[in-house]
Structure formats: C-alpha cells, structure tokens
Amino acid sequence: LLNQKAVLRAANFGNSVLQLFAPRLYNYYASTLQAVCDRDPKHLRRNFDGNVFASATFNLGPRTVSYVHTDHLNLPWGWCAITAVGDFDPTLGGHLVLWDLKIIHEFLPGSTVLIPSAILRHSNTGIGAQEHRYSFTQYTAGGVFRWVECGFKAAKNLSATEKQEYIHGAGRWRRGVDMFSFWSEFSA
C-alpha cells in the first residue's frame, strides 16, 4: 500500500498541509523523525520519502466508523492527518464529528483534515449498508518526541541532572503551543 500512487498523493498532501499551516510544528516533526532515522538508518526509514509523520494507519472497512475518542498517546499539541475515501453519500453519512467544538461536518470521499487528535474528541458517523468508507491517518506518537528529547531513552531513565534539564509539564505544553501559527502569519 505504501507505494500506491493514490496513497502517496494522500500522504504527501497531509504532509504539505501541516507544512503550510503549522511550519514550526512541521519542523519539530521533521527534526524529530530525522533524528530517529539517523539513529539507526539500517533498520529505520520513513513510511513516505520527505514525510514528517512517523506512523500511518489504514482502516480498510469496508464500512469504517470511528467512535468518539481521542488519540491520547499522540503528541498533545500535534496534528493528525485524516483522509476519508470510498463510495458513500457524504450528505447522508460519514460525517466528521468534532465533539468539543460541537461541529458535525460533511466529510466527502477524498477529503483530508488535520486535527489535534490527542486533545480533541472526534468520530465519524455511519454510512449506508451498501456503501463503502475507508480511512487513512498519519500521526506521530508523543513518546517518539519524548524519547528523542531525553537523549534516546525513556524519561524514567534520566539521571537526576538530566531530569532537571528536561522540559516537562506546563513548560513543555507552552513550548508546544508556541509552535502553532496565527492567522496574521498567512496574510499577504
């Protein structure tokens, strides 16, 4: 699947949207994944060349539905790229539901959205019995970022001195939020 032209296009589109709308966050993803790949180039490689997401999931249905959830192991301020594909009537089903924002959105086949899936409850609605819906998601687990920031080891294995230097809690969250973009940055 990783080499299929349609999958490559969807993967690269999600990657490009992150780069366009959250360039600082994109750079954080890029430098983190590069550090991981450089650590063991013989055994580790990207799912897609030039793509900053460490993970991809294919939900092959045939009638894929996700129930209300958060992806709590993802980077809290990170974005997850979700692409819906299939043969279904988006006016009747397959809607994207963002519970915390009280939004229900018609999510057409071929659409991609990026959301902070670790902190935003989301789901999608069912589709007709004879319809098909699949999804493709890209994301990076928060543990990957922590592992790199802790010198390629678990935070619990840090020495007392290293623990003092490691940014965690509110400081880490503040640094993460500072990676978001402002609308004013997109004005011509």
Q: How would you characterize the overall build of this protein?
A:
The protein is an alpha+beta fold. Helices cover 30% and strands 18% of the residues. The chain has five helices and seven strands, in the order H-H-E-E-E-E-E-E-E-H-H-H. The chain has a four-stranded antiparallel beta sheet with strand order 1-7-2-5, with helices on one face. Strands 4-3-6 form a three-stranded antiparallel beta sheet, with no helix packed on it. Helix 1 packs across helix 2 and helix 2 (23-39) crosses helix 3.
- Give the spatial strand order of the biggest sheet: 1-7-2-5
User: How would you sum up the global shape?
Assistant: globular
Largest sheet: 4 strands, antiparallel
Low-confidence stretches: none
Tally of contiguous helical segments: 5
Strand content: 15-25%
Distance between the termini: 39 Å
| Radius of gyration (Å) | 18 Å
The total count of strands amounts to: 7
Order of helices and strands: HHEEEEEEEHHH
